[in-house]
Design goal:
Elements: E1 2-8, H1 14-26, E2 32-38, H2 44-47, E3 52-58, H3 66-75, E4 84-91, H4 99-111, E5 116-117, E6 122-125, H5 138-153
Parallel strand pairs: 1-2, 1-3, 3-4, 4-5, 4-6
Bound molecules: flavin mononucleotide (FMN).
């Protein structure tokens, strides 16, 4: 079994939905065990025992939210079993595309250099501050999950 932990933050529920769809995609692959948690409720000791960690945040002012930044910093201080990581964000589009994703990847690289990216981050568009997720975006989440699971099994 390859164990994958998905941690997200959300204000309006869109990033949670993205996280759930990613998990749905991963569960299509045999031999993958998944766990999912809001960053505010996450059990760090449990995360430390997983093989891969996925981290998702809404884009707030061109970057991830504070809870996610803190989570990454805390992971950096743990003795992690994980070797693999991937990130995702939700954003309004325009010039914000992938901004939170890129900043999360940079922070992970600085704070937890031994974690390697499984795949480039996924950036999902919402139609307004509180959503909904733009048509055609949700299938990308499931595909992302499946791709990551396949990669981890390879
Ligand atoms: C305080 C705040 C700042 C935001 N700043 C940006 C931004 O700089 N760029 C952007 O594309 N969206 C921005 N948004 C929109 C969020 O990306 C959107 O609310 C989020 O993707 C919805 O996800 P959630 O339902 O998981 O909270 C902002 C939203 C809030 C509440």
């Amino acid at each position: 079994m390859v164990k994958v932990f998905v941690v997200y933050d959300t204000k309006y529920g869109n990033t949670k939905l993205v996280a759930e769809k990613i998990v749905e995609g991963m569960r299509e692959v045999e031999g993958i065990e998944t766990a999912i948690s809001d960053v505010e409720e996450v059990d760090l000791e449990k995360v430390a025992d997983y093989d891969a960690i996925l981290i998702g945040s809404p884009n707030h002012v061109g970057g991830p939210v504070r809870g996610i930044k803190k989570f990454i910093d805390k992971l950096g201080k743990l003795d992690l079993k994980a070797r693999w990581v991937a990130v995702f964000d939700t954003q309004l589009g325009g010039n914000q595309f992938e901004k939170a994703v890129k900043k999360m990847e940079k922070r992970i690289n600085e704070k937890i250099p031994r974690l390697k990216l499984i795949a480039p981050g996924l950036s999902i568009k919402v139609g307004g501050m509180s959503g909904p997720i733009v048509d055609g975006e949700l299938p990308k989440c499931k595909e992302f999950g499946k791709k990551i699971a396949d990669q981890l099994k390879a």
